[in-house]
């Protein structure tokens, strides 16, 4: 007689074992994914802290915060270039030539971000500027120029750094009170395209009010002194997350070598699926256009929809952001619009709480 111990498993027993294993894997997988996302979020937060602290180190050396875009406009470098020596990227910084047209007789005559040796900088994917939670494309439009995930704070309204809608009066920095439809610009730690009337005639690449070779003069992207951050560095956003080309193709969001992708504003709350990024001068992806939940237009700016890009991430429930003092916060998608706009202004005098 064969003993029970020597008998093999029946088909039903094997199926039961396999089913139990499948259930265990199903229970374990979400836990593993949560651990991976937690690690990615910590890495992302560390990147943001390094950027904010590098900005403060830049200020200690140069007397101003970083220039967000170059004085020549969209295409002759963004904050990604001058921050490099403070992010252990001195070798890349030395390769880049003509930031903002410096060293050239005519502003803007310098090589663009992809011109000359500059392309050897803009084709590098830098992990410190990349959030591991974002699976977006590594390069723009299938080429060699790279995409990244962080943008500097352009304030509480738009990239022209005036009231939204442009020309409105009687409002305040959070859009509350007697004129809720008007949000007044409350200052920002970084300068962008802050002269829309002058720029209207020549577009983003037109030099504005600068003495050649002197990046401290003029309006376009004028670097701010720390004393201009009257709300305090611990009450003013420095840098936050954006997404890399959520639609793929020619979608230029996340191409932070280009001025229009190098900043964000707090006019709309994080990950707001109804907030339209206005990427004037760029592109919002190949047809049929922006993906659902990531609205975008590349049409010309209007008074109602001026140039702006909003904070977005692939994290569940919110985004990471760093204040100008180097502290990092995870900001919920449900933060009140009032609190978010207050955190974006540098001179609004508001009491902020990023937990709202």
List keywords for this structure.
alpha/beta; two-stranded antiparallel ribbon
Concise synopsis of the structure shown:
This protein has 356 residues and is α/β, with parallel strands linked by helices. It has five helices and nine strands; from the N terminus they run αββααβαββββββα.
Oligomer: single chain
In order across it, which strands form the biggest sheet? 5-3-4-8-9
What ranges have pLDDT less than 50 throughout 5 or more consecutive residues?
1-5, 196-218
Helicity range of the residues?
A: 10-25%
Cα end-to-end separation? 75 Å
Rg = 23 Å
The shape is globular
Give the SSE string: HEEHHEHEEEEEEH
Main sheet overview:
5 strands, mixed
Helix/strand-derived category reads alpha/beta
Note the total helix count.
Answer: 5
Tally the beta strands. Answer: 9
Tell me the β content.
Answer: 5-15%
Mean pLDDT: 85
What is the total number of structural domains? Answer: 1
Task: Characterise the protein shown here.
The protein is of the alpha/beta class. It has one domain. Helix content is 22%, strand content 10%. It is built from 5 helices and 9 strands; from the N terminus they run αββααβαββββββα. Strands 5-3-4-8-9 form a 5-stranded mixed beta sheet, covered by helices on one side. Strand 1 (69-70) and strand 2 form a beta hairpin. The termini are far apart. Mean pLDDT is 85; it is low at 1-5 and 196-218.
What's the layout of helices and strands?
Layout: H1 11-62, E1 69-70, E2 73-78, H2 90-95, H3 119-122, E3 150-153, H4 196-202, E4 237-241, E5 263-264, E6 277-278, E7 296-297, E8 318-323, E9 328-332, H5 337-344
Parallel strand pairs: 3-5, 6-7
Antiparallel strand pairs: 1-2, 3-4, 4-8, 8-9
């Amino acid at each position: 007689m064969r003993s029970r111990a020597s008998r093999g498993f029946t088909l039903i027993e094997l199926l039961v074992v396999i089913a139990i294993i499948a259930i265990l894997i199903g229970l374990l997988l979400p836990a593993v994914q949560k651990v991976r996302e937690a690690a990615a979020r910590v890495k992302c937060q560390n990147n943001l802290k390094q950027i904010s602290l590098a900005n403060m180190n830049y200020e200690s050396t140069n007397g101003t915060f970083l220039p967000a875009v170059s004085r020549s406009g969209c295409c002759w470098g963004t904050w990604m270039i001058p921050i490099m020596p403070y992010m252990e990227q001195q070798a890349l910084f030395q390769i880049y030539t003509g930031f903002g047209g410096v060293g050239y007789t005519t502003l803007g005559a310098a090589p663009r971000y992809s011109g000359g040796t500059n392309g050897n900088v803009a084709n590098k994917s830098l992990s410190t500027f990349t959030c591991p939670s974002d699976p977006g494309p590594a390069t723009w439009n299938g080429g060699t120029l790279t995409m990244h995930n962080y943008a500097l704070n352009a304030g509480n309204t738009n990239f022209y750094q005036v009231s939204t809608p442009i020309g409105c009066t009687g409002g305040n920095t959070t859009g509350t009170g007697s004129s809720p439809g008007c949000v007044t610009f409350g200052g920002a730690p970084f300068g962008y395209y802050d002269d829309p009337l002058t720029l209207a005639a020549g577009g983003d690449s037109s030099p504005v009010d600068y003495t050649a070779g002197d990046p401290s003069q003029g309006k376009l992207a004028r670097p701010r002194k720390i004393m201009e951050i009257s709300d305090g560095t611990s009450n003013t956003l420095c840098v936050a997350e954006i997404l890399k080309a959520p639609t793929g193709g020619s979608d230029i969001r996340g191409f932070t070598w280009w001025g229009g992708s190098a900043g964000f504003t707090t006019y709309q709350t994080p990950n707001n699926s109804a907030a339209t990024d206005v990427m004037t001068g760029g592109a919002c992806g190949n047809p049929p256009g922006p993906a659902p939940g990531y609205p975008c237009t590349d049409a010309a700016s209007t008074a109602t929809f001026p140039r702006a890009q909003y904070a977005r991430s692939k994290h569940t429930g919110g985004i990471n952001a760093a204040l100008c003092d180097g502290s990092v916060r995870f900001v919920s998608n449900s933060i009140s619009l009032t609190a978010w706009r207050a955190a974006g202004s540098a001179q609004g005098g508001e009491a902020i709480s990023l937990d709202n």
